Amino acid sequence: MIKMIKYIFTSIVAILIFSSCSTDVDLTQEWQDIPIVYSILDLNSSTQYIRINRAFLGDGDASQLAHIPDSINYNYLLDVRVKEYDHNDNFVKEYICDTVHLWYNSDDFYSGYMPIYRFTIPTPSNIDYYDTTWLNPNYKYELVIYNPKYDKLITSSCDVIGNISITKPFSGQPYLAFHTTSKSSIEWTSAKNGRLYELLFRFYYKEVNINNPADTFNKYIDWKLGTVKSSKLTGGENLTIAYYNQGFFENLKNHLTIDNNINRIIGNIDLIITVGDDNMATYIALNGPSSTSISQSRPVFTNIDNGIGLFTSKRTFKRTYFLNSSTQIMLTTRDDLLPLNFKTDT
């Protein structure tokens, strides 16, 4: 999902910057301020970030102009707030954003410190061993940006993701097994306001230097299972994704290097389900790879009023398991896996 998020913002900027320099633009018209807003509210995080850039119109090469900080950044502060409303649309509270400057590295645009707006939630909405949330999944959030220079108000709103129920693996099941040649599946019921579901297994292990056992690193490797879309946003829909058990071992062979100087100690494995809302799913669908002609323009999706971009939400659900003994035995003894030097934690 991290790559997905980076892709979304890059696409937003590219659409605005390079379409503004096309032959469809009237270069004699008055200059307009067009803010580009990007924010994904993360229910699992106590700090939320909002990135605000601007489109530009200028003479010369667009790729060169994109490397000039004032071309894509405001050189003054905006007033940025996020308002919280309950399920009856009653105002609950308001978060006033401050700024932090984070380094952004890009070949296509300006590389340097970018002003990012943020707000911090002091206490979680719900504390749970697996799924602690900081934003209230039953509430709605409104983004309000005021540009004092142009007396301009930019707004957007989004609903956040409700709960899912994982029905397979079964609740309380401590182990996962990958030693058979059969197929297995993950099954769950959809969340309210959840449209796009991305699933992966994250396998943890330690790398121990054989010549210096104190030289130990904690690592993990992801096995991506794919994405699923729900057909409704009311929640409660039965969803499933299938996988081949042997894919677990193939993923390890394809992504780990052989190193005779290290042992790899088997750890736990997480099932991670990341859920995106309808706006995120729509934006990705409209801006993903297309088989249409490159000369055919694509529709631009935005849910920002008086600007362009994306104000959306996501939520992550995680469950932790042990590998069963048969899987651990296979991982440490099967001929094609022996070069990876996996060992049990004894």
Main attributes?
Immunoglobulin-like, 346 residues, 2 domains
Please outline the helices and strands.
Layout: H1 2-20, E1 35-42, E2 47-54, H2 62-65, H3 69-72, E3 79-85, E4 91-96, E5 98-104, E6 112-120, E7 140-147, E8 152-159, E9 165-168, E10 175-176, E11 183-189, E12 196-209, E13 212-229, E14 238-244, H4 247-255, E15 262-276, H5 278-287, E16 308-323, H6 325-333, E17 342-343
Parallel strand pairs: 1-16, 10-16, 15-17
Antiparallel strand pairs: 1-2, 2-6, 3-4, 3-7, 5-6, 7-8, 9-11, 11-14, 12-13, 12-15, 15-16
Can you walk through the features of this model?
The protein is α+β, with helices and mostly antiparallel strands. The protein folds into 2 domains: 2-161 and 278-313, Sandwich (Immunoglobulin-like); 165-273 and 319-343. Helices cover 16% and strands 42% of the residues. The chain contains 6 helices and 17 strands. It has helices spanning 2-20, 62-65, 69-72, 247-255, 278-287, 325-333, and strands at residues 35-42, 47-54, 79-85, 91-96, 98-104, 112-120, 140-147, 152-159, 165-168, 175-176, 183-189, 196-209, 212-229, 238-244, 262-276, 308-323, 342-343. The strands form 3 sheets. Strands 1, 2, 5, 6, 10, 12, 13, 15, 16 and 17 form a 10-stranded mixed beta sheet that branches. It is globular.
